[in-house]
Design a protein that fits this description.
Elements: H1 5-19, E1 29-30, H2 37-51, E2 64-69, H3 75-82, H4 91-94, E3 105-107, E4 113-115, E5 133-138, H5 148-164, E6 169-172, H6 201-210
Parallel strand pairs: 1-4, 2-5, 2-6, 3-5
Antiparallel strand pairs: 3-4
Length: about 220
């Protein structure tokens, strides 16, 4: 009769290794868009003209995270849209500034997180609030709802940012106009507004439920 003891031990050891295997590590992959003298100058001008802030560096003091979707179906195309310093073909936006739109972070459909700009570098992604808001873009649209993997990635990223900065608000892009009339709102033109639907109440309700332990402040009521 063969001795089964070594085989049993091997099986137990393998099971222990499998059961103790760590979960997927939270990672941020740096994929920087162009940041040059032109973008810096346009950002400083935007801060002055649109937010009424005269600064020597195009930086922000984060107090808010704004969640978006791209309405573009791939990371590659989105990167190519955000990468140039100047904006073209958007009459609704170029009238306010020729600075290109962008965000600090971009999340793919599978939950992969890319950092396009340093956390505290200025990005144009939300009217009236850019100066204090970190933007998270997600690959998705009305016809391509955000995924469970993106929901988890947004939660992980926001928790990471909350540990680093005094983040009080997490809002959807479609909720930005609720801050009109608050002390946080800084937009010099009372007529400069765009209507947004991203990423929608369903996604934001799920995200805020997952972040409920952070005791974030509620979005103001209009």
């Amino acid at each position: 009769m063969k001795c089964l003891f070594p085989k049993i031990l091997l099986g137990v050891f393998a099971l222990a290794i499998f059961s103790c295997s760590p979960k997927a590590t939270f990672r941020i992959i740096d994929k920087p868009i162009t940041w040059n003298a032109e973008r810096e100058q346009l950002s400083l001008q935007y801060l002055k003209d649109r937010h009424g802030l005269s600064k020597t560096t195009a930086s922000i003091d984060p107090q808010m995270v704004v969640v978006h979707w791209t309405a573009i179906s791939t990371i590659e195309v989105t990167f190519d849209v955000f990468n140039p310093s100047t904006l073209g073909g958007r009459a609704d936006l170029t009238g306010a500034s020729n600075l290109n739109v962008s965000s600090q972070f971009l999340i793919d459909r599978d939950g992969t997180i890319f950092r396009l700009l340093p956390d505290t570098t200025f990005a144009r992604h939300v009217i009236g609030l850019n100066y204090l808001a970190i933007g998270i873009e997600n690959i998705g649209s009305d016809d391509m709802p955000l995924t469970k993997a993106q929901l988890k990635a947004n939660e992980q990223l926001i928790r990471h940012l909350k540990r680093k900065y005094p983040i009080d608000y997490v809002i959807g892009h479609h909720e930005y106009q609720n801050f009109q009339g608050t002390d946080l709102w800084k937009e010099t033109d009372p007529n400069y507004r765009t209507v947004k639907t991203d990423p929608g109440d369903e996604f934001m309700n799920k995200l805020r439920k997952n972040l409920s332990d952070l005791n974030l402040k509620p979005v103001p009521k209009l």
